[in-house]
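Help wanted!
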Amino acid sequence: MWAFVFKRTLIALSVALTISVLCFSLLQLSGDLALSIGGPEATAEQVEQIRKDYGLDRPVVHQFATWLWGAVQLDFGRSYYYQSDVTDLVVERLPVTMTLGVMSLAIALGVSIPLGVVAALKRGSWIDRMAMAIAVTGQAMPNFWFGLTLIIVFAVKLQWFPAAGSDSWQGFVLPAIALGYYATPAMMRLTRSGMLEVLEADYIRTARAKGLRTGTVIFKHALRNAVIPVVALAAVELGFMLGGSVVIETVFSLRGLGQLAWNAISRNDYPVVQAIVLIIALFYIVLTLLADILNAILDPRLRAR
Amino acid sequence: MAPILSPQIAAEPHLVATWQSRLFRNMLNNRSFAIGLLIITSLGIVALLAPWLAPHDPYLQNTANRMVPPFWHETGSWTHPLGTDRLGRDYLSRLIYGTRISLFIGLVVALISGLIGTTLGVLAGYFGGRVDAVVSYLLTTRLAMPVVLVALAMASLIGGSMLTVTLLLGLLLWDRFAVVARSATQQLRDAEYVQAARALGCPLHYILLREVLPNIAGALIVVATLEVANAILLEATLSFLGMGVQPPLPSWGLMIAEGKAYMFFQPWVITIPGSALFMLVLAINLLGDGLRDITVRGGRNE
Amino acid sequence: MSNLSSTERSTAPASPLLSVKQLRVDLPVAKGTLHAVRGIDFHVERGEMLCLVGESGCGKSMTSLALMGLLPRKAQINADCLNFDGIDLLTMTEHERSNLRGARMAMIFQEPMTALNPAYTLGNQLCEALRRHQRVSRKAAHDRAVYLLERVGISAAAERMRQYPHQLSGGLRQRVMIAMALMCEPDLIIADEPTTALDVTIQAQILHLLRDLQQEFGTAVIFITHDLGVVARIADRVAVMYAGEVIETASAQALFKTPSHPYTQGLLRCIPSPGKTPPGSRLQAIPGVVPSLVGKLHGCAFCNRCDQADEICQTTPPLHPIASGHSARCHFAHPLASSAQINTPEVVS
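Answered by r_m:
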């Protein structure tokens, strides 16, 4: 078990390192940094001064080491546009994105698992067909368009929820639905197919032969085993959702990490962009690692390895 | 078979069908495959015949004729069946030309990413060991990168255009191809006909291209449909955020972005391109689901 | 012959524990209806070991699932009589059936490797049936489980209770399954090929264990197998199944001494016996194949493989009594059954 965790952590760390190299090359690709920092009015002397101040005159490897050492200490440098520490900007925006991500995941899990279970139990019924329809249409819906439609219907026409803003929990409802809906189909299909497979298993027949109540058979014996792969998928989907927050936060004007990233991208503020890419990638890596560990806890057979 | 066939066995109707005819029948019987194929074929024809089908020039601006509502609206007219946009361009014509952009990007992206992913996956699956470790590492790294964010950042660096978007997505979306190709090849690696080819001394490229690839093609085609759909959605997203296809090209995502400011009073400016996008992606997914059902059932031989 | 240790529970001590008349199980399949069980009759006395013998696909597993009420949902079951200790199983609701399952009739399955839930400890899975059916404390259930694990020959039972199924070998898992079946002291245990998936040496151990426990607890057992060697070792009585029918029932002794149905005779000829079968000679086999059970089957199901088949075999043979407790479903029941009073075959013109 511990060897397994150690090995996975090692891989995760090296993947994180690779991604930080990629992020740093992004910065290098963006052209002469001193020019973009100084702005169009900067004189040649000023640009030279900036180059010295930011250490841009030193070799690339040296610059990377400095940047990486800073990143390890959670110092991602200064934003060109906002003229403040990237870390401060990120810390300020992180709670919004986290709330959005967790709410979306909760909605996605809350819809997909019950629906997947019922669809598997009542295979071929109208509820199964409805669940499959939701799955098929959900995968086809562009989420920014779905978000806009939600705004038109629930914020403008019905006025149930605000169209924008992160001041109250109501502001998160529509974006969380828009983001969560995107993750629902895959998790629902997996729950359904997992349940169908598990319900055929010999140990379910054993459980029924013991005269256990239907509820015990389904929830204790079947769901527990069917849900194991869904846990791993949920972690991955949460990672994707954090990435997808760029779109949804822009649509709903939420002051989160995604919106910050989009603003930074459109203003060529690359220290911010690379920091966010790295942070979201790290989140994904940590989440998949957690999913592996959680899987090992849920499935005793994996613990032996 | 038994030497003496009792009458009850002989009475059994023989269901002798060739593999091809059964596959064909499965295709027509599979409703989602049939519906998906129908929609995609029609949209493909629309894309090909766009210059003849579009009632107007999609780029022709007419400021006197801005924001004309579609025909079902009281003030709509059949001159512009789906109305006009904020620059007075005919919405139907733009929609029709937009089909070309979506389909082109979807297909080319799937082609590029399919080439990359299949190559990596087949090599990893066939050789295993260190090659597999390297490919798996690349795959993990790629999966950890947030696609939309990276594509946005790169597009803004290079400058958004149809070519940039296509290349970027092509370079980013190979993960599923690699995963599927890798596991399918692993299963094939020890198959008898592959071992036979190896024993006969067939060159490596022959084994991979002639023995392995045709046998994993079915699974790859299913992945390809999913990736076409995925690429179309991502292109629309990037264009919506202003880093994808640039104006005045009529990308559906861009049309939604341009209509966003008007959506509260003229919601059709976003519902029309949005529905088109939804329909196309839905059709491709239906086709993919149908294909998967058919190939799985074909494999089970019943 | 019958062990009357559990008579206090029953309403009519003289009646058999289980009686089955004209049980039919139909399964819808792609090409029509599969008549998996085609009207079988048998009964089980209290405390006896009845072996249900037949080759795979003859309907013996379907019979056992029908008795337990565990048939697939699509399956259709009907019978003239399906009576368990005075209770009519056919008219019971699913809930009433589940009250019976695990408590008064338990089942042991063929595949010990997959029959236990990988996610829970053995203790958890052993205790849950008892806690479901009887008001017992956690402690009492635990103690009974430990006691039974020791009884089925598992050492360090208390530690085993905390283990997961994947930590056990197949033989040990089957012992756990047996302990699990005994948890509520059932009147009837149905064992569906419980030794088929095990190594030969383990098979013998499990057979001995089952036989010992059956005698000790006075439990009736329906033992399903395709292996006549197993039957010879443990059975009190035998019912031979072929193509969804019981074609011969007899006491184990009578069956091996005077097999009356040509199929049973064929089966017995297939077993090599030391001394009788000359070394190097070809083993016997029954020619032909089992008829398809999809659709209607006319006449004797065995006639296409029977060397004595006649025109009369185009009609369905009744179950002919041969001796007391011995009957066979054959029109010629049977000249070779020497000592039995031979009924003149009913001539159907």
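OP: Thanks! One thing I noticed: Chain C has two domains: 13-104+188-196+204-274+287-349, 112-183.
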